[in-house]
UniProtKB/TrEMBL annotation:
SMART domains for the chain: ELFV_dehydrog
Example GO BP: L-glutamate catabolic process
Name of the molecule in the record: Glutamate dehydrogenase
Cross-referenced Gene3D superfamilies: Leucine Dehydrogenase, chain A, domain 1 (3.40.50.10860), NAD(P)-binding Rossmann-like Domain (3.40.50.720)
Annotated transmembrane regions: none
Species assigned in the record: Candidatus Nanopelagicus limnae
SUPFAM superfamilies listed in its UniProt record: Aminoacid dehydrogenase-like, N-terminal domain, NAD(P)-binding Rossmann-fold domains
Signal peptide: none
Pfam family, one: ELFV_dehydrog
Record flagged with keyword Nucleotide-binding: yes
Homology family: Belongs to the Glu/Leu/Phe/Val dehydrogenases family.
Keywords from the UniProt entry: NAD, Nucleotide-binding, Oxidoreductase
Length: 412
């Protein structure tokens, strides 16, 4: 996604990798090697619609396999392009390394407005995407998962298509429905992790969790569960928005009561706001959990939250990030804050391989402990290097990927 200011999202990630490499005294050649994408595949997807055949463009970018099979979601959104997929694939490499799971990084996408696809069309698109990319996918090669515009049902179709060609291997994709080799707990894992990290951040900064006010952009998989668990932990969600617009209630929105609505347009409210206005609400914690680049040069001066916990990937442009930090706003980076999703995917993958199933309580307990470990590690690294949380997270993960890449030998 080349941003409105012409900045490449992939270049922004690589800038963070280079900074970490410099702190760690890594040689330039090594930093270049671990920054580059291993493989990029662009495909065409002919889609049969009532109006005729429409040819969509799909992608799979495999950024790194240094620490294990590539892992990363598949996004259906009209703004998907190769630069965005590269950036997201690369973020997966740093995220999986940060939480220390045996995966590398990858990401996929199709440039299409998922809200305008019928269920049958969506099924056709994901089946074609899977068939065309079959040679680069698999439980030990590259394992997709849901992302923006895709969900458990999409993953079920993906798994079915994979099985038709390669035979039974449920570990070929994660984020599947529980009734089809999915893991109880995976669906909520990203949002649950975001909420747990929010609570830990408040405590770390000597703020009360009980009654802390939260505003969330996005009421899809991540935003919905983040809101629910924030409420369960005692926080007060005072503003929410999705594609249809937003709602505000200073007394606190009852998330349980509205959890199952299709869209926030279906929620009764006397105080409606625009989709982006939620970012400018006065609150303790802001959780962007929808799209990238939503906090940028045009609105950075209007942000009033004391803490920003990144539920979405790359919701803050680098230039805005610098300004926010200068204003003493604490930012918890995406590769830590939303890593509960890939942690949950790791649990699902291992269970599929072992043909064994954990109860939800065990899943939740393992997730909470491992998220806490990653949180402590990032905070201690920030202290050690006297730096911000994003730089600290990249120092941890770049060190791990660089080590794995190096010890594999010079002839790889
Ligand atoms: P989703 O498709 O389930 O939900 C997206 C939500 O964002 C919807 O409520 C949609 O209405 C809203 N939205 C879209 N455009 C908007 C706009 N302009 N303003 C306000 N809201 C808007 O997607 P998701 O899976 O919840 O993913 C959200 C973000 O979290 C993405 O950046 C994704 O990469 C990231 N993420 C997802 C996971 C996961 O496990 N699903 C894991 C890590 C990171």
């Amino acid at each position: 996604m080349t941003t409105t200011s012409g900045v490449s999202a992939f270049a922004e990630v690589n800038e963070l990798v280079a900074q970490a490499g410099s702190v760690l005294n890594l040689k330039k050649g090594l930093v270049d090697a671990i920054s580059a994408c291993e493989r990029e595949v662009t495909i065409s997807i002919p889609l049969h619609r009532d109006s005729g055949i429409e040819v969509l463009t799909g992608y799979r970018v495999q950024h790194s396999s240094a620490r294990g099979p590539r892992k990363g979601g598949i996004r259906f959104h009209q703004d998907v392009d190769i630069d965005e997929v590269r950036a997201l694939a690369s973020l997966m490499t740093w995220k999986t390394a940060l939480i220390d799971v045996p995966f590398g990084g990858g990401k996929g996408g199709v440039a299409v407005d998922s809200t305008k696809l019928t269920p049958l069309e969506k099924e056709e698109v994901i089946r074609r995407w899977t068939r065309t990319l079959i040679n680069v996918l698999g439980p030990n090669r590259d394992i997709p998962a849901p992302d923006l515009g895709t969900d458990a049902q999409t993953m079920a179709w993906l798994m079915d298509e994979f099985h038709r060609i390669e035979g039974f291997q449920p570990a070929c994709v994660t984020g599947k429905p529980v009734g089809l080799f999915g893991a109880p707990g995976r669906e909520e894992a990203t949002g649950r992790g975001v909420a747990q990290i929010t609570a830990a951040t408040l405590q770390q900064n000597n703020k009360k969790v009980e009654g802390a006010t939260v505003a969330i952009q996005g009421f899809g998989n991540v935003g919905r569960y983040a809101a629910l668990v924030c409420q369960e932990l005692g926080m007060k969600v005072i503003a929410l928005s999705d594609m249809s617009g937003g709602i505000v209630d200073k007394k606190g929105i009852d998330i349980k009561a509205i959890f199952d609505v299709k869209s926030l347009a279906d929620v009764k409210s006397d105080n409606r706001i625009g989709s982006a206005e939620v970012l400018e609400i006065e609150c303790d914690v802001l959780i962007p959990a929808a799209l990238g680049n939503v906090i940028n040069d045009s609105n950075v001066d209007k942000i009033k939250a004391a803490f920003i916990v990144e539920g979405a990937n790359q919701p803050i442009m680098t230039s805005a990030d610098k300004k926010l930090r200068a204003n003493k706003i604490v930012i918890v980076p995406d590769i830590l804050a939303n890593s509960g999703g890939v942690m949950g995917s790791y649990f699902e993958w291992t269970q599929n391989i072992q043909q064994f199933s954990w109860p939800k309580e065990k899943f939740r307990a393992e997730l909470d402990v491992r998220m806490q470990t990653a949180f402590v590690n990032v905070n201690e690294t920030a202290k050690k290097y006297k730096t911000d949380l994003r730089s600290a997270a990249f120092i941890v993960s770049v060190a791990r990927v660089a080590e794995a890449f190096s010890v594999r030998g010079s002839l790889v």
